[in-house]
Amino acid sequence: MAVRRRPSTASAAGEPIKSDKQLLKASDALPLPLYLTNGLFFTLFFTVAYFLLTRWREKIRSSTPLHVVTLSELAALFSLFASVIYLLGFFGIDFVQSFVSPSSRAAHDPWKDDVVVQRKKSVNASALLSSTSAATTTATAIDDNSPALSTDDEEIITSVVVGTTPSYSLESTLGDCRRAAAIRREALQRTTGSSLVGLPLEGFDYEAILGQCCEMPVGYVQIPVGVAGPLLIDDEEYTVPMATTEGCLVASTNRGCKAIHMSGGAGSVVLKDGMTRAPVVRFSSAARAAELKFFVEDPLNFDSLAVVFNRSSRFAKLQRIQCSMAGKNLYMRFTCSTGDAMGMNMVSKGVQNVLDFLQIDFPDMDVIGISGNFCSDKKPAAVNWIEGRGKSVVCEAVIKEEVVRKVLKTNVAALVELNMLKNLTGSAMAGALGGFNAHASNIVAAIYIATGQDPAQNVESSHCITMMEAINDGKDLHVSVTMPSIEVGTVGGGTQLASQAACLNLLGVKGASRDSPGSNSRKLATIVAGSVLAGELSLMSAIAAGQLVNSHMKYNRSSKDVSKLAGPR
Description:
It holds the Pfam family HMG-CoA_red. The chain is of the alpha+beta class. It is built from 20 helices and eleven strands.
């Protein structure tokens, strides 16, 4: 790998910066931050203008000659002239600055000039640059993903390093998301003294994540995507993409898919489809809070509330409102369908509409928060386990005795006993909440990352109870997974990124369904449940057959010397 040194600057050694771009600007008038200088001159302009107009009117009324001026009026005239010159100069009147410095007539980049101005204003710039320069000498290699930096970029990097240019503003200032990421990355390496070798920069569309997926990017993490399948569910075959760094996970899920396929496939049913949001409001008394509770839960009022709620989107359809009180605080759990979107933003807008509507009849209602955790989002909660959130799905299959023996390498009786003692009794002993399964979260997380879902919602989406029962005189195995809160969408968020959209396309659920809104997201939820079923089958069989340790030693251990793979620190 080619090794190059970062170019040093004169300021790093404490010497004055000499550059033909170092031009005198109107903003150099005072040694203050730019916003304070602007505010001062704006205030000065309007104040003295008002003063002079007032004095002029008084002189006219008293027949005093206008050319007779007092010392205060003379000072006001001077201040007015100075403020006008500053404001004209700051807002780009070239002929004003040409009187100050003839060289300013040359065309130049205002962004680069502003960087120079801010660098001159930084009191500790030289000391900070010297320390960062010394720190970065320990990391002499720059990763190959970072392109050679131009002189203009060096100016901006220096400004970020010394703190005069906020790192978060680079995209809006430069208008180039990839360049902003490269500059932020280099500034980060210089300030921390740590190399980002191994973290890719090139080959990613930074425009696609602006304002919706990630702020202040410096690169992206590579996660391998494997495929399991075909998964035969509801008479359709799917090849399931899984993004993971856990060896053996894809292979194990693939074995479960094979067992299901050889047994005739799995079936699924979506019991519920509704996203939730639960604001918390407070009243002066519990009695008053109860009045709103009774009003909201009254079936006669539901239609009017639904009309207000549904204005948020043509896909939003209010289904129910469930209330719970804690003293004088009221929690209202709104549930609505959201089409093919996961729907958190949609339901939040609808809730806000209803709160504004209720405020008319309940003006003493104090809205504490749009989310009161009775939803409950990204936290293990009994309300999701019992009532459901997102898609509630049950997936089942009958695995033939021969398949259990030849593919899963175990027997029906062993699987049934293990499921009872591990997934049911063992989880109960642990006080599990929705965790009556072997490793549902493994499969959910891998599919979520691959398809652009919110990985944090793996918390409640992995709520699952795995059931196994011997049927047909103990010869065959009936296995099912019940997952009450699978939160997925096929539009919005990370689903719009190229890689994640490709994985959704592989499953045939990319984007919104035109024929039946919501069907794509429901199909994705059934695929998640079917994949969990396959994963549960395979892992439980490995444990029953005593193969778990051996398989992980084979597929989840590396023989490489990782110390040689690590980049410079």
